[in-house]
Specification:
Layout: H1 20-25, H2 36-41, E1 50-51, E2 56-58, E3 63-64, E4 69-71, E5 74-76, E6 81-82, E7 87-89, E8 92-94, E9 99-102, E10 105-107, E11 110-111, E12 116-119, E13 122-124, E14 127-128, E15 133-134, E16 139-140, E17 150-154, E18 157-163, E19 168-170, E20 175-176, E21 181-182, E22 186-188, E23 193-194, E24 199-200, E25 203-204, E26 208-210, E27 216-218
Parallel strand pairs: 2-5, 3-6, 4-7, 5-8, 6-9, 7-10, 8-11, 9-12, 10-13, 11-14, 13-16, 14-19, 15-20, 16-21, 19-22, 20-23, 21-24, 22-25, 23-26
Antiparallel strand pairs: 1-2, 17-18, 26-27
């Protein structure tokens, strides 16, 4: 993906989001995670959310199972489930019909509706688009091993971002296979598939398949805006 292609329309074709205003005002998709806290501070949530504790806002029908750990502010939409032994840290906005599964950890993330992280996964400082899915053991890393700032890599050069922690932006309906690793600063366009065990970095265009060795193939699919 080139720098000019990293516009919101390459990632999100739907408005299935509990924090749509947060997405709309962001100049770039990679700015969204660092703005989640300010969005919650401003009290801009839709009126369908009820404050059920000092730090949790939920729509009717949301479920947080006994044994889940919520360490920070959480917004959770109707039909979403946080399973036992899941951990949520920082400020998280979880849309409708999402699943944060057993032994899954989520830190400072925005989930559009329908996101699925069933088990043994991690996502930090990231945005997951409508119906994005992480297979078992898939990880979105948000911190570089040498501690250097996270910048963004495109096919036509690097863009200085300088974040201490930033994971990834996954577009609508992105599929990430089991035990894949998305390195800090990864951007993945909508309807792309990442094969299991693949290590991904940089900016990946929409509607492709990412295979071992960084091979990218065009995916035969039609865009859906449901």
């Amino acid at each position: 993906m080139k720098k000019a292609g990293a516009v919101k329309g390459s990632f999100f074709a739907t408005r299935h989001c509990a924090a749509q205003e947060l997405v709309d005002v962001a100049a770039c998709v990679w700015e969204i995670p660092s703005s989640i806290g300010r969005f919650l501070d401003a009290g801009l949530l839709p009126g369908t959310f009820e404050r059920i504790s000092d730090s949790i806002w939920a729509e009717q029908g949301a479920v947080i199972e006994h044994g889940a750990s919520v360490e920070g502010r959480l917004v959770i939409g109707r039909g979403s489930v946080v399973k036992r032994n899941a951990v949520l840290r920082g400020d998280n906005i979880i849309g409708r019909d999402c699943l944060v599964g057993n032994f899954t950890e989520v830190k400072n993330c925005l989930f559009f509706d329908g996101v699925q992280m069933p088990h043994f996964s991690y996502a930090g400082d990231s945005v997951l688009g409508y119906k994005a899915h992480l297979g078992a053991g898939a990880k979105i890393s948000n911190f570089k091993s040498d501690g250097s700032p996270v910048d963004l890599s495109f096919s036509d050069g690097r863009l200085k971002f300088g974040a201490e922690k930033f994971g990834a932006v996954l577009g609508d309906r992105v599929e990430v296979g089991c035990n894949a690793v998305l390195n800090p600063g990864t951007l993945i366009g909508m309807d792309t598939v990442v094969y299991p065990l693949v290590s991904v970095r940089g900016a990946v265009p929409p509607r492709v398949i990412v295979k071992n060795g960084g091979l990218v193939a065009v995916r035969d699919t039609e865009q859906s805006n449901d």
